[in-house]
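Before relying on records like the one below, remember that each one covers exactly one chain. Contacts with other chains, cofactors or solvent are not represented anywhere in the record.
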Amino acid sequence: MFNYQILVNLRFSRNKKKIFKFINLIYEFFKLLLIFLKPFPHKLKNKLKKLRRFRLTSFIFLLISSLILIFVFNIIYPLKYIENEVAINRRYEIINNEFTENIENNVEKFRKEIFEESLFDENYKKWEKPLPSYFTFEIQDVTRIDEQRSTIRIKGIITAEYYPESIRTPYLTDGEITKKAKNDILSIADLNFASTEERRFEKIAELNVDEDGYRRSKYSFEGEFPLERDLRKFPFDKAKWRLRLTLPINASAIDPYLEDGSFEYNRPFINAYVGSYAKCYGGRYVACLTNELISNNSYSPEAYIDETHEKFNLAKLDFNHVIGVFGQIERSIPSSFARYVLPIIFALLVLSLTDQLSSEESWEIKVAIPPTVLLTLIFMQNTYHSQIPQLAYLTWLDKLYLIAYLSSTLMLINAVISKGDWFSSDLVDKYVKLKLNYIIRSFFVFIIIILPIFLLLI
């Protein structure tokens, strides 16, 4: 009668040999990395020719599936969010030069659409392009960053110098807002405060009017402003602070010209950040001036791009001027390294030192350390997540924690294998055990040294 136990042992032996062959393949791969600058040995060439697929056990299948999921959710999906992050200022179109081209003809077409009968009036006056109005931004103080709300507190002064006659509405008569603008242009302006609390935008001096009608208006401001942050490289990230002054009259009615003001950081540190240089005008400056246009979206999207649309001549002037200034700050590298990266390095050092224990008495310590380090890393990551806003992408520090989790798991597997319960006293099993230790340690060194630097540079 056929012995069922013999059949089971035979099948187990065959599966075991296949697993050993798969492990041997990975072992040769790491050896290949070490000799890739040398000619391939003859024996290795023969082995590479004889490679073929093997049936994988459930453990190997689960491992590969997990690695695929990590790749998909951490590499593929984040690429979809890049476009959304780049589009943060898409509503503000820097097309001022295009807008002013043929502005006289565009205004006449605009008037023809609305006031066609009035164009034939003998008292009708053709619209003329406005004279420049001069604006100056002075940043006096940059303080207090709110990490959770992504805001920064800025204090400064805005000065406007202009002739009232330089504001020329495209309509036939001045409206209430245009009349206020001619009297005091900054009285109608709106600053992009991020919060209604503790904000100030008020006149600090009486309106100065020269004999020829030239006016000077000066306002001071202080409050919380949006901080545009890209945290992909956190904790070595950079951020932009940006002031936007919106003039709520038709963009054709005024020609704003920005003059250089004083832009200096009056303190070496702003919370965890330091002052940096922003890129603009083909160089790097402490602050950069911007003259943008914002659409009022009064018409359908097709009206702004389709010349055959019935509202095209109206939509072509449906903009307001948005002038402003922006600068850049970056997180202090020594502080970030000490607060966020150094604890992870020491945790990995503990894992590496624990792996050197080889006596049977120290095996329990060798097995206990990786789970302890893993739980510590989870607690540290949760703590740092509470200090920044919720994000739709992974930061560099998140990826570093993922590497640390994988390293802890590898050291735990290596500790279990070193016990030897999975292997018999046969020479083949001992040889496989040594190869497994070599593979795990090589992979451990690779992911904790090479991978973090690679992820920071890309």
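The longest strand covers residues 215-230.
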